[in-house]
Amino acid sequence: MKKILRALVSVALLAGLTLVAPQAANAEDIFGPFPACPNFDVSLSFSGGNQGLRVTRLHNGVVYTVTAGSGTTIKFYAVDRQTGALLRSVTFDTKASVTKTAESGDVTKYTIKGYGTLLLFPTDPGGPSTTVYNGSVAFTLKTATGDLVSTVVNSGRQFDICAALS
Questions:
Q1: Are 102 and 64 in contact (CB under 8 A)?
Q2: Taking 80 as the threshold, does the pLDDT of residue 33 lie above it?
């Protein structure tokens, strides 16, 4: 689950991390909480959109995967760490995205174009944070654990969800 959340899952994100995304998850399904903001935890819910595996292939020992889909509405919740109560929420409408992965041994490189959400935990460089990207984003995770092993590189717009929920 940790790997999925961090995996900058473009829109239909979360419930899918190895880039398995919920096909139009029920609006009442809330995923989390996750320690992805400095002063509170974050939970998410999804509605609409779709995400589908388009291509998978093996070449020279590297597994390449392309996942694409249309936009999903994501609702982010600030969650009190002590009580678990939902404090505030913000809704974000995403558009389309394409996620490419290259899994080679113990690491998986992610490249996302379009809209994507990335949750960084306190143990990640630059974490904790929750950011929605619109543009291009690339990062590498340890395949087995989902731990971030490279700096997040991005171009385009960023939306700081922690600031919006503060």
A1: yes
A2: yes
